[in-house]
Amino acid sequence: MKVVIFGSTGTIGKHLIEQSLEKGHQVLAFCRNAEKLNAFSNPNLKIKEGDVFNLDDVSSAIKGQEVVIITLGSGSKKSIVRSQGTKNIITAMNNNGVNRLICQSTLGTYESEENLNFFWKYIMFGWFLKQVFIDHELQEHYVKNSHLDWTIVRPGAFTNGEKTERYKHGFSSKTKSLKLKISRADVADFILKQVTDTYYLHKTPGLSY
Protein backbone atom coordinates (compact mmCIF):
# COMPACT_ATOMS: atom_id res chain seq x y z
CA MET A 1 0.00 0.00 0.00
CA LYS A 2 1.04 3.59 -0.55
CA VAL A 3 0.96 5.22 2.88
CA VAL A 4 1.69 8.82 3.89
CA ILE A 5 2.45 9.54 7.54
CA PHE A 6 1.91 12.98 9.06
CA GLY A 7 3.79 13.36 12.32
CA SER A 8 6.47 10.99 11.07
CA THR A 9 9.28 12.34 13.25
CA GLY A 10 7.34 11.83 16.48
CA THR A 11 7.70 8.87 18.78
CA ILE A 12 4.74 7.05 17.22
CA GLY A 13 5.63 8.17 13.71
CA LYS A 14 9.07 6.58 13.77
CA HIS A 15 7.60 3.26 14.88
CA LEU A 16 5.08 3.57 12.06
CA ILE A 17 7.82 4.11 9.49
CA GLU A 18 9.80 1.11 10.74
CA GLN A 19 6.84 -1.24 10.93
CA SER A 20 5.34 -0.04 7.63
CA LEU A 21 8.57 -0.79 5.82
CA GLU A 22 8.74 -4.22 7.46
CA LYS A 23 5.28 -4.92 6.03
CA GLY A 24 6.39 -3.86 2.56
CA HIS A 25 4.36 -0.65 2.30
CA GLN A 26 5.55 2.26 0.21
CA VAL A 27 5.92 5.06 2.74
CA LEU A 28 6.01 8.82 2.35
CA ALA A 29 7.08 10.50 5.60
CA PHE A 30 5.90 14.11 5.83
CA CYS A 31 7.88 16.26 8.25
CA ARG A 32 9.32 19.72 8.86
CA ASN A 33 12.91 18.51 9.22
CA ALA A 34 14.12 15.54 7.17
CA GLU A 35 17.32 15.31 9.21
CA LYS A 36 15.30 13.79 12.05
CA LEU A 37 14.77 10.72 9.88
CA ASN A 38 18.38 10.20 8.83
CA ALA A 39 18.45 6.85 10.62
CA PHE A 40 16.07 5.39 8.03
CA SER A 41 17.33 4.12 4.71
CA ASN A 42 15.02 2.07 2.54
CA PRO A 43 14.07 2.19 -1.16
CA ASN A 44 10.39 2.12 -0.17
CA LEU A 45 10.74 5.26 1.94
CA LYS A 46 10.42 8.81 0.64
CA ILE A 47 10.78 11.82 2.92
CA LYS A 48 9.03 15.07 2.10
CA GLU A 49 9.63 18.27 4.03
CA GLY A 50 6.70 20.61 4.47
CA ASP A 51 4.43 22.49 6.81
CA VAL A 52 1.14 20.90 7.81
CA PHE A 53 -0.35 24.41 7.99
CA ASN A 54 0.44 24.86 4.28
CA LEU A 55 -2.31 23.29 2.18
CA ASP A 56 -0.14 23.09 -0.94
CA ASP A 57 2.57 21.17 0.96
CA VAL A 58 0.00 18.78 2.38
CA SER A 59 -1.77 18.27 -0.94
CA SER A 60 1.51 17.49 -2.69
CA ALA A 61 2.27 14.77 -0.12
CA ILE A 62 -1.19 13.19 -0.34
CA LYS A 63 -1.45 13.09 -4.12
CA GLY A 64 -1.21 9.50 -5.35
CA GLN A 65 -1.42 7.93 -1.88
CA GLU A 66 -3.85 5.20 -0.79
CA VAL A 67 -3.84 5.62 3.00
CA VAL A 68 -3.26 8.67 5.18
CA ILE A 69 -2.09 8.24 8.78
CA ILE A 70 -2.10 11.17 11.22
CA THR A 71 0.01 11.05 14.38
CA LEU A 72 0.60 14.76 14.78
CA GLY A 73 2.07 15.96 18.08
CA SER A 74 1.13 19.15 19.86
CA GLY A 75 4.53 20.84 20.00
CA SER A 76 3.32 22.92 22.95
CA LYS A 77 0.47 23.04 25.43
CA LYS A 78 -1.21 25.84 23.43
CA SER A 79 -0.71 24.30 20.00
CA ILE A 80 -3.54 23.81 17.51
CA VAL A 81 -1.42 21.74 15.13
CA ARG A 82 -3.53 18.60 15.54
CA SER A 83 -6.86 20.19 14.71
CA GLN A 84 -5.76 22.68 12.07
CA GLY A 85 -3.24 20.30 10.51
CA THR A 86 -5.92 17.62 10.32
CA LYS A 87 -8.34 20.08 8.76
CA ASN A 88 -5.81 20.76 5.98
CA ILE A 89 -5.18 17.05 5.52
CA ILE A 90 -8.90 16.36 5.12
CA THR A 91 -9.21 19.14 2.54
CA ALA A 92 -6.22 17.78 0.62
CA MET A 93 -7.63 14.24 0.73
CA ASN A 94 -10.92 15.43 -0.73
CA ASN A 95 -9.10 17.42 -3.42
CA ASN A 96 -7.01 14.39 -4.40
CA GLY A 97 -9.64 11.68 -4.15
CA VAL A 98 -7.92 9.82 -1.28
CA ASN A 99 -10.44 8.32 1.15
CA ARG A 100 -8.78 6.15 3.81
CA LEU A 101 -7.78 8.06 6.94
CA ILE A 102 -6.42 6.67 10.20
CA CYS A 103 -6.04 9.29 12.92
CA GLN A 104 -4.36 8.81 16.29
CA SER A 105 -6.11 10.75 19.06
CA THR A 106 -6.16 9.92 22.78
CA LEU A 107 -8.17 7.84 25.21
CA GLY A 108 -10.40 10.20 27.18
CA THR A 109 -12.03 12.15 24.37
CA TYR A 110 -15.81 12.35 24.29
CA GLU A 111 -17.50 9.17 25.60
CA SER A 112 -14.16 7.49 26.36
CA GLU A 113 -13.73 9.97 29.22
CA GLU A 114 -15.52 7.34 31.31
CA ASN A 115 -12.51 5.03 30.90
CA LEU A 116 -10.21 7.46 32.71
CA ASN A 117 -9.34 7.53 36.39
CA PHE A 118 -9.41 10.65 38.56
CA PHE A 119 -5.80 11.59 37.79
CA TRP A 120 -6.20 11.59 34.02
CA LYS A 121 -9.70 13.01 33.93
CA TYR A 122 -9.28 15.96 36.30
CA ILE A 123 -5.56 16.64 36.75
CA MET A 124 -3.95 15.84 33.39
CA PHE A 125 -6.73 16.53 30.86
CA GLY A 126 -8.84 18.71 33.11
CA TRP A 127 -6.02 21.07 34.01
CA PHE A 128 -2.40 20.38 33.03
CA LEU A 129 -3.03 19.35 29.41
CA LYS A 130 -6.41 21.02 28.99
CA GLN A 131 -5.61 22.89 25.76
CA VAL A 132 -3.96 19.81 24.24
CA PHE A 133 -7.08 17.81 25.11
CA ILE A 134 -9.36 20.42 23.54
CA ASP A 135 -7.26 20.26 20.37
CA HIS A 136 -7.65 16.46 20.29
CA GLU A 137 -11.44 16.75 20.51
CA LEU A 138 -11.57 19.38 17.77
CA GLN A 139 -9.37 17.16 15.62
CA GLU A 140 -11.80 14.28 16.12
CA HIS A 141 -14.72 16.56 15.27
CA TYR A 142 -13.17 17.39 11.90
CA VAL A 143 -12.44 13.73 11.16
CA LYS A 144 -15.91 12.49 12.10
CA ASN A 145 -17.54 15.11 9.87
CA SER A 146 -15.22 14.57 6.92
CA HIS A 147 -17.25 11.91 5.05
CA LEU A 148 -13.98 10.04 4.51
CA ASP A 149 -13.34 6.37 5.32
CA TRP A 150 -11.93 7.19 8.74
CA THR A 151 -10.84 5.38 11.87
CA ILE A 152 -9.88 7.28 15.04
CA VAL A 153 -7.51 5.37 17.33
CA ARG A 154 -7.58 6.37 21.01
CA PRO A 155 -4.53 5.05 22.89
CA GLY A 156 -3.80 5.37 26.58
CA ALA A 157 -0.60 6.96 27.91
CA PHE A 158 2.51 5.99 25.96
CA THR A 159 5.30 3.80 27.28
CA ASN A 160 8.62 2.74 25.73
CA GLY A 161 7.83 -0.96 25.89
CA GLU A 162 8.26 -3.43 23.06
CA LYS A 163 5.64 -4.48 20.52
CA THR A 164 3.60 -7.22 22.16
CA GLU A 165 0.40 -7.29 20.06
CA ARG A 166 -1.28 -8.21 23.35
CA TYR A 167 -3.50 -5.27 24.11
CA LYS A 168 -7.17 -4.43 24.54
CA HIS A 169 -8.94 -2.53 21.80
CA GLY A 170 -12.46 -1.48 20.93
CA PHE A 171 -13.61 -1.81 24.54
CA SER A 172 -16.71 -0.15 25.98
CA SER A 173 -16.56 3.29 27.58
CA LYS A 174 -17.79 1.52 30.72
CA THR A 175 -14.65 -0.63 30.94
CA LYS A 176 -12.68 0.22 34.07
CA SER A 177 -10.12 -2.61 34.21
CA LEU A 178 -7.58 -0.78 32.05
CA LYS A 179 -3.99 0.11 32.83
CA LEU A 180 -4.45 3.28 30.73
CA LYS A 181 -1.02 2.62 29.21
CA ILE A 182 0.18 1.28 25.88
CA SER A 183 3.62 1.06 24.28
CA ARG A 184 4.34 3.27 21.30
CA ALA A 185 5.32 0.17 19.34
CA ASP A 186 1.92 -1.41 20.01
CA VAL A 187 0.11 1.81 19.03
CA ALA A 188 1.91 1.68 15.69
CA ASP A 189 1.08 -2.02 15.36
CA PHE A 190 -2.64 -1.40 15.86
CA ILE A 191 -2.70 1.61 13.54
CA LEU A 192 -1.08 -0.38 10.74
CA LYS A 193 -3.56 -3.22 11.18
CA GLN A 194 -6.24 -0.69 10.17
CA VAL A 195 -4.54 -0.11 6.82
CA THR A 196 -5.91 -3.40 5.50
CA ASP A 197 -8.79 -4.00 7.93
CA THR A 198 -12.11 -2.14 7.81
CA TYR A 199 -13.61 -3.57 11.03
CA TYR A 200 -13.17 -0.20 12.77
CA LEU A 201 -14.31 1.89 9.82
CA HIS A 202 -16.12 4.98 11.14
CA LYS A 203 -15.35 3.89 14.69
CA THR A 204 -13.18 5.18 17.56
CA PRO A 205 -11.47 2.16 19.17
CA GLY A 206 -9.70 2.69 22.45
CA LEU A 207 -6.31 1.07 22.96
CA SER A 208 -4.77 0.04 26.27
CA TYR A 209 -3.30 -2.83 28.29
Automatic annotation (TrEMBL):
Q: Which Gene3D superfamilies match?
A: NAD(P)-binding Rossmann-like Domain
Give the InterPro entries listed for this entry.
Answer: NAD(P)-bd_dom, NAD(P)-bd_dom_sf, Polyketide_Oxido-like
The organism's superkingdom is given as Bacteria
Q: Where is the NAD(P)-binding domain?
A: 7-197
Name of this chain's protein: SDR family oxidoreductase
